[in-house]
Design brief:
352 residues, 6 strands, disordered N terminus
């Protein structure tokens, strides 16, 4: 019995940490064809959610970053769901590769818009101006603070001409430079997303599009980008040029891959798991927002956990959650929390 017990323990260790000693073979760059194939072949059918999620409504999502940097390892694989809050976590963890999985194809369109804007913009001032279809103000540049940038851009003029030029540039960048075979539905989706960012500017919030699911704490894009962690440290992806360039580099090398998929669906997460196991990559962190709440309501959270168990994990792999009453926040609204992925999904058999 004693020998058998040690054998079981050894198997558990091997289940989740075989990659700790492996040399990762993650790509340093994907070709345009590889990017589109990986995204398309990993994706499921378009699904629906109660809101558009054009941006986060999580005021305290930066509070978890200091602890996250202690519990995870940089230079691995980041996974997440939803819009721009992922970028701030990516800037902190500096992964080699990223997968953004969302049930809505509209989020893929949003991520493609961001991809084009990151690649076309040489710095934060230019990026923020493009994002909101504003004429770039004089006097802001790489050395400007994030507060200076948003203050200047908020007051800058926006015209139909700027919007049309930028929208056409986004479409051309994706279809002509990269050669992505975007459908009419995707092009309409990108146009709708960009139209909302143009219409509301830096004051856009979770419910601005009119389909915010009934939840709106009034937090704007400018609020989120100029927020800090609990110690007053600016950590957003637009806080400084270093953070911005982490994202720009990954996007330029086609290493932020948007995937359409239900967390408890039969394909998306498992397809990513197969790819990463082949490449001997390790998932460093998986940002869940509050999706687990909906999975529990539908009685399919266990299915999600078993999907996650197919990913390459080790003892450092960490869930990032948005929950009410989480440890990292101010006790109101959604706060962040962390969980050890391997220990939480250990009841599921690992599938290759």
């Amino acid at each position: 019995m004693r020998t058998r017990s040690w054998f079981i323990v050894g198997c558990f260790v091997l289940l989740f940490v075989p990659l700790a000693r492996a040399a990762e073979t993650l790509p340093s760059q994907l070709s345009d064809q590889e990017f589109w194939k990986l995204s398309s072949e990993s994706s499921e059918e378009d699904g629906s959610f109660r809101s558009d999620n054009l941006l986060s409504n999580e005021s305290y999502f930066q509070f978890v970053i200091p602890r996250l940097n202690e519990t995870t390892k940089q230079g691995r694989v980041y996974m997440g769901v939803g819009p721009e809050q992922n970028f701030t976590y990516i800037a902190a963890l500096k992964p080699k590769m990223v997968f953004i999985v969302d049930i809505r194809r509209g989020n893929l369109d949003l991520q493609l818009m961001y991809k084009a804007l990151f690649e076309m913009s040489k710095n934060r001032a230019e990026f923020v101006s493009r994002l909101f279809a504003k004429k770039q103000p004089d006097g802001i540049g790489p050395n400007s603070t994030v507060e200076e940038i948003f203050s200047a851009v908020q007051s800058a003029p926006s015209t139909e001409e700027i919007y049309t030029q930028n929208l056409n540039a986004i479409k051309d960048h994706l279809m002509k430079k990269h050669g992505f075979p975007l459908s009419e539905t995707d092009l309409m989706g990108i146009e709708w997303v960009y139209g909302n960012f143009t219409r509301f500017g830096p004051r856009i919030n979770y419910s601005s599009s009119g389909r915010g699911g009934g939840f709106n704490n009034g937090v704007t894009y400018a609020d989120l980008m100029t927020a800090t962690d609990q110690d007053g440290v600016f950590r957003s992806y637009l806080a400084n040029e270093e953070n911005f360039n982490v994202l720009k580099s990954l996007e330029t090398n086609n290493l932020i891959v948007p995937v359409v998929g239900n967390f408890a669906g039969p394909k998306a997460i498992r397809a990513i798991g197969r790819y990463l196991n082949e490449k001997e990559g390790v998932v460093s962190a998986f940002y869940l927002s509050n999706v687990e709440m909906y999975l529990e309501q539908d009685g399919i959270k266990d299915v999600f956990f078993c999907n996650v168990a197919t990913l390459p994990l080790d003892t450092y792999s960490t869930f990032i959650r948005s929950v009410r009453g989480g440890r990292f926040g101010l006790g109101s609204g959604l706060n962040s929390d962390l969980g050890n992925i391997a220990s939480e999904v250990k009841s599921c058999a690992r599938e290759k």
